[in-house]
């Protein structure tokens, strides 16, 4: 009996680690494609890839998170007319991820980022509603993890844009961006699939602040 | 030890089996994915269910991938905009080829809409013709809802009232609803023959739907038009606002809790200092002075269920003198005090995925106390409205809603003659019980039908009526659609008629509308033709207006025309403009008309152009509106015929600006009729012939050539990104 149990447990451990390895390998490849994607076709291909992984791995939030992130990247690089459609897709993927992982700082931060991108479609009409919504999400993200550099940078970015539009001092926003650059250097996620994006944008924004 | 050794061996075998297996049998799966038009679907996701194995289709709809899976599997084909297809396949190492045709998925968001007769302003920029902000920033409107909507096609400029006159309909044929509930007396009091303003600030609403005809069976008691205003949801942050305006002061405070919010606003308006600076062609004893309060409470019971309570009170007083046309020295002093209360509570409950419930209650009390040369007139109208609507979404394609309404209204006018002390009273009590049902069915993404039916029973005249409504929409291209609407509409005769004869029948109108619109990337083009047939209009004998038997429902009329709308926010960066043109052909035999004639509130041609331009470098939005209306009829008793006189055409150029002083202060200014066109809206005639045997007349004109407004709007909020900009 003991023998059988041990065998079973061992076999299970082997197969789980084997599955994990396969998942991680596939995800790392896809994530790399998300970061490098440039054309609509490249985005579509990697999003489909992530959807396949997400459909097979029913308890993993990362595939949906990266599919959502890919859609936000695609949205920010596309024409205004297409942006809402892509953001709708991003929102749908993010919802799937949120159902699998509650109070996840990265998901909350991405939610804020989707709201920020909604503003860009029609700033005069959407400015107030969506800047409020995105600030709320970034602040929620910071409460969940004060060390997360993305939440901090994205918050700084929205406040910078607002201050610039209003013609007011960007000092406070720049202080947040500067702090986020520091946090990007220090931040170490234990999960190899953890998001790593935002650092170069934060540095570029920091440069802009210096001017 | 032996046991463990065996276990390890067993595990290693499994592991080897798992890793070795893939190398043994690999199947190539390839093929072509087409849509219902046999055109390739690009970017479809084709894969083996519950595996990572799959591929995207290329520009030719082709895909190919390898899989190590074996035996019976399911091939999934999914693509945005199409129904997902699943195929049972058997993998055995031999290459497989498939051709799959996908069915178009039905999606209401991309489907055709019911657009005939309706202009909506909402936050969804894809399909809205107007945005909430547009109402507030239209030059010439001075942040009045009716003022802004008067720049849309289908409306007629009737400068001496400031109300909405829609497609040859009189002012009372447009009804206002807040969160689906009726509002009585939606306009503030004003001097005789001067423009009024709506009682409700556009800033309260997140969505506005202005129907110029053919509207939903949920709404009744409006012959021409329904103005449906939806209040904002719960506030999410605390803020305070102070406004200092050339006509008064305003303070507002909003407090947000986790699931609820409260917003209160107090406004004090006194136009006396303004009238002191800018003389008016009116004999004013007391310029309008008013105190107005608005309170809104919202409670979000859960993600979907919301309770909204809104209340408004207003106290206003104004006094003027109107001279007699035949004897200018003889003046009538009109001292008007108005007390208004409005309460509205609505509750939305999403019962489950398919059923939802909306209920509401509203109550209006409007009391005018008028001192007419010491004669005391008290006119009161109190009305309640209760409604429930159940909506059932059978599927994406089919939804049904039904519900009922009860309206009750009590009206009295008490007239006490000063000299004799005699009291005359006119009154009526009306209850209307209504039931309605509506069904939306989408045959496809391109074709939708809406069939509705409304029944009403009116206790006053004991009339029962059945009003069918029908709308069709057909998408002709990705961005264009045609729509057709038909509807029957009933309305109780106006208060000043029914109070004399309580048994008057309902007035009726039939609408026929054909619409074509294209909305594409910040450009909108719309054209609509319509025919409206009026029946059972009230007629009376002008010489015998207090005699109930001098009233009947023998009147009729028609209105037909063409409305064109063009909006473009794209061609010139920063410039947003819209152009409206309305052609109207109308005649009526109603009220005291001896024959069928064009009514005095109608004009054949109405044209307006609204422009808005944001100057980024100075953080200022500037706007200008030009409106033109062709001549209006008036009755000239010195000539043969009826309504045979014509005023000169109406013209107005108004400008405004909003300047962002800093992130929490906005300076706003506006001037109407910059060039001071001397517009004449009509003429009033005396009752006796003068020495030349003619009746004397007096022109109905603007009280002053221009109206100038300046205001400073200050926001006090923790969150610096919030200011009143969206309000201006």
Description:
The complex is a heterodimer of chains A (211) and B (728). Helix content of chain A is 82%, strand content 0%. Chain A is an all-alpha fold. In chain A, helix 6 packs antiparallel against helix 7, helix 7 runs antiparallel to helix 8 and helix 8 runs antiparallel to helix 9. By secondary structure, chain B is mainly beta. Helix content of chain B is 6%, strand content 55%. Chain B contains 5 helices and 38 strands. Chain B has a 22-stranded antiparallel barrel. In chain B, strands 8-11-12-9-10 form a 5-stranded mixed sheet, with no helix packed on it. In chain B, strands 3-2-5-6 form a 4-stranded antiparallel sheet, with no helix packed on it. Chains A and B meet through helix 1, helix 2, helix 4, helix 6 and helix 7 of A and helix 1 and strand 3 of B.
Biggest sheet of chain B: strands, sense, closure? 22 strands, antiparallel, barrel
Percent in strands of chain A: under 5%
Low-confidence segments of chain A, given as residue ranges, are none
For the largest interface in this structure, which chains are involved and how many residues does each contribute?
A: A-B, 45 and 49 residues
Distance between the termini of chain A: 73 Å
> Which structural category fits the helices and strands of chain B?
mainly beta
Q: Which regions of chain B have little confidence, pLDDT < 50, spanning 5+ residues?
A: 15-23, 724-728
Mean pLDDT of chain B, rounded to whole units? 91
Radius of gyration of chain B: 32 Å
Q: Given the C-alpha coordinates, what overall shape of chain A results? A: globular
Major sheet of chain A: size, sense and barrel closure?
none
**Total beta strand runs of chain A:** 0
Mean pLDDT of chain A: 87
How many alpha or pi helices of chain A?
Answer: 9
Q: SSE order of chain A in H/E notation?
A: HHHHHHHHH
Counting helices, strands and paired strands, the structural category of chain A is mainly alpha
Oligomer: heterodimer
Round the Cα radius of gyration of chain A to an integer and report it. 19 Å
């Amino acid at each position: 009996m003991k023998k059988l149990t041990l065998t079973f447990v061992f076999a299970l451990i082997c197969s789980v680690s084997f599955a994990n390895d396969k998942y991680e390998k596939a995800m790392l490849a896809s994530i790399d494609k998300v970061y490098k994607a440039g054309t609509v076709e490249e985005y579509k291909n990697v999003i489909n890839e992530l959807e396949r992984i997400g459909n097979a791995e029913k308890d993993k939030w990362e595939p949906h998170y990266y599919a959502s992130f890919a859609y936000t990247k695609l949205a920010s690089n596309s024409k205004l007319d297409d942006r809402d459609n892509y953001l709708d897709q991003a929102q749908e993927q993010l919802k799937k991820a949120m159902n699998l992982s509650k109070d996840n700082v990265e998901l909350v931060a991405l939610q804020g980022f989707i709201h920020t991108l909604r503003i860009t479609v029609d700033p005069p009409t959407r400015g107030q509603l969506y800047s409020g919504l995105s600030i709320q999400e970034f602040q929620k993200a910071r409460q969940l993890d004060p060390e997360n550099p993305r939440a901090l940078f994205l918050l700084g970015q929205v406040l910078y844009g607002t201050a610039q539009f209003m013609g007011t001092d960007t000092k406070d926003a720049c202080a947040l961006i500067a702090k986020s650059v520091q946090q990007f250097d220090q931040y170490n996620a234990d999960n190899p699939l953890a998001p790593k994006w935002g650092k170069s944008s934060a540095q570029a924004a920091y440069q802009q602040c210096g001017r | 030890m032996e046991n463990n050794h065996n276990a390890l061996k067993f595990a290693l075998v499994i592991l080897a089996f798992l890793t070795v297996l893939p190398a043994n049998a690999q199947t190539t799966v390839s093929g072509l994915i087409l849509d219902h038009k046999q055109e390739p679907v690009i970017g479809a996701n084709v894969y083996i269910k519950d595996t990572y194995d799959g591929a995207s289709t290329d520009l030719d709809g082709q895909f190919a991938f390898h899989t190590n899976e074996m035996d019976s599997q399911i091939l999934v084909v999914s693509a945005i905009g199409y129904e997902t297809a699943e195929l049972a396949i058997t993998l055995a190492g031999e290459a497989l080829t498939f051709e799959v045709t996908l069915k178009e998925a039905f999606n209401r968001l991309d489907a055709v809409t019911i657009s005939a007769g309706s202009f909506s302003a909402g936050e969804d920029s894809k399909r809205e013709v107007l945005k909430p902000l547009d109402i507030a920033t239209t030059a010439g409107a001075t942040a009045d809802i009716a003022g802004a909507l008067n720049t849309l096609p289908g409306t007629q400029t009737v400068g001496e009232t400031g109300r909405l006159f829609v497609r040859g309909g009189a002012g009372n044929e447009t009804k206002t609803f807040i969160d689906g509930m009726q509002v009585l007396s939606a306009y503030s009091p004003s001097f005789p023959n001067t423009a009024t303003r709506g009682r409700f600030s556009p800033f309260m609403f997140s969505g506005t739907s202005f129907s110029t005809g053919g509207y939903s069976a949920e709404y009744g008691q409006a012959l021409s038009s329904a103005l449906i205003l939806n209040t904002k949801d719960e506030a999410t942050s605390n803020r305070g606002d102070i406004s200092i305006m050339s006509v008064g002061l305003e303070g507002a405070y909003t407090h947000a809790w986790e699931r609820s919010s409260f917003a209160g606003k107090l406004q004090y308006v006194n136009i006396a200092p303004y009238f002191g600076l800018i003389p008016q062609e009116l004999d004013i004893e007391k310029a309008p002075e008013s105190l107005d309060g608005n309170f809104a409470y919202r409670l979000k019971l859960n993600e979907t269920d919301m309770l909204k309570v809104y209340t408004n009170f207003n106290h206003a007083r104004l006094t003027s003198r109107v001279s007699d046309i035949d004897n200018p020295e003889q003046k009538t002093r009109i001292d008007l005090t108005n007390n208004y209360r409005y309460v509205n509570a609505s509750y939305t409950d999403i019962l489950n995925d398919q059923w939802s419930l909306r209920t509401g209650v509203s109550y209006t009390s409007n009391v005018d106390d008028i001192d007419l040369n010491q004669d005391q007139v008290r006119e009161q109208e109190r009305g309640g409205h209760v409604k429930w609507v159940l909506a059932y979404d059978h599927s994406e394609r089919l939804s049904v809603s039904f519900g009922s309404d009860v309206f009750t209204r009590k009206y009295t006018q008490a007239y006490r003659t000063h000299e004799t002390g005699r009291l005359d009273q006119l009154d009526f009590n009306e209850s209307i019980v209504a039931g309605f049902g509506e069904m939306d069915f989408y045959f496809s993404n391109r074709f939708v039908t809406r069939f509705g039916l409304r029944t009403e029973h009116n206790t006053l005249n004991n009339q029962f009526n059945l009003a069918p409504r029908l709308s069709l929409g057909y998408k002709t291209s990705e961005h264009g659609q045609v729509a057709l609407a038909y509807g029957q509409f009933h309305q109780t005769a106006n208060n000043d008629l029914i109070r004399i004869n309580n048994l008057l029948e309902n007035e009726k109108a039939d609408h026929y509308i054909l619409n074509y619109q294209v909305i594409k990337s910040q450009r909108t083009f719309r054209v609509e033709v319509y025919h409206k047939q009026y029946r059972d209009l009230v007629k009376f004998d002008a010489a015998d207006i207090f005699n109930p038997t001098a009233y009947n429902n023998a009147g009729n009329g028609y209105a037909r025309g063409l409305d064109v709308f063009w909006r473009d926010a794209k061609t010139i960066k920063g410039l947003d403009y819209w152009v409206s043109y309305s052609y109207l052909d109308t005649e009526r035999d109603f009220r005291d008309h001896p024959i069928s004639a064009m009514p005095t509130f109608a004009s054949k041609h109405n044209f307006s152009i609204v422009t808005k331009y944001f100057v980024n470098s100075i953080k200022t939005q500037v706007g200008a509106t030009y409106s033109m209306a062709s001549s209006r009829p008036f009755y000239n008793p010195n000539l043969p015929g009826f309504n045979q006189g014509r005023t000169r055409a109406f013209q107005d150029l108004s400008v405004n600006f909003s300047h962002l002083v800093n992130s929490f202060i906005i300076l706003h200014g506006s001037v109407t009729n910059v060039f001071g066109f001397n517009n004449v809206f009509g003429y009033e005639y005396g009752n006796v012939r003068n020495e030349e045997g003619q009746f004397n007349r007096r022109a109905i004109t603007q009280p002053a050539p221009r109206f100038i407004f300046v205001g400073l709007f200050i926001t006090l909020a923790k969150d610096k990104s919030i200011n009143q900009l969206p309000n201006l």
